[in-house]
């Protein structure tokens, strides 16, 4: 399919030596991308096939920090939302001390109570003697707090609105966080770096929304010695009551911490391929049906693939 034009937008954000905003031309790129199959089904009875291709709207910006490039793409898709973060750069450290690496950590902020689901195996019972079943248990997060991911249980985090119920299921509408599983801060807790990166000790934080709390590492990160980030916010309000630190039924912020540790390889020379990190938000009982059904069905016309045949007429 033919995609539309690319639009570039300026941003008055970069600070000069005196702290004044300076305009950066073409700082944000707005464009659509083909992201492969969005949904597809083949009717086993009739043999007919229907397929729709994903057409995502992307807002992208690229930041160069020394020898690294950070590519931030906010993706608005037909069946969800997300952020695609990629790290790249030159290979000026390849061949050096193998212990040298650049630790990169990004934070995604989404607004809206949070519900955790954990599917443990169901106990053996007379009606399930083979042990193949599993059950899902859910619990609300009542107050501001930090949480860890669980690879083995595939623990999920869903942001729900209890004041709005789904028309069919009569359960709260919501969006599920699709996290990027990665290591957290590798620096020792007593190091100079760790106290300044309070957010980096946990993968998920939940706080009440406050207009002045925009920076989970504190407002002046490079001049900070610690004690002014998200962990300090939560600890300072702990025990003050639900009106102060409650998150159920409140306007909240969910912070997801993820990163990538770069150990330089020979293949990163002279410029490294991107390291890709993807975070998503998936609707859960938010719509009454697949929200991407209005996407046009793919046609074998413009942009179609070409089948290659060998000299005998067979496919190859």
UniProtKB/TrEMBL annotation:
EC code: 1.4.3.-
Domain Copper amine oxidase catalytic: 15-80, 97-293
InterPro entries reported in the protein's UniProt record: Cu_Am_ox_TPQ-bd, Cu_amine_oxidase, Cu_amine_oxidase_C, Cu_amine_oxidase_C_sf
GO molecular function, one term: quinone binding
Keyword presence, Nucleotide-binding: no
GO biological process: amine metabolic process
PTM-bearing positions, type 2',4',5'-topaquinone: 68
Post-translational modification summary for this protein: Topaquinone (TPQ) is generated by copper-dependent autoxidation of a specific tyrosyl residue.
Enzymatic class: oxidoreductase
Keyword Lyase: no
Cofactor: Cu cation
Cofactor comment text: Contains 1 topaquinone per subunit.
Alphabetical keyword list: Copper, Metal-binding, Oxidoreductase, TPQ
Family: Belongs to the copper/topaquinone oxidase family.
Protein name listed in UniProt: Amine oxidase
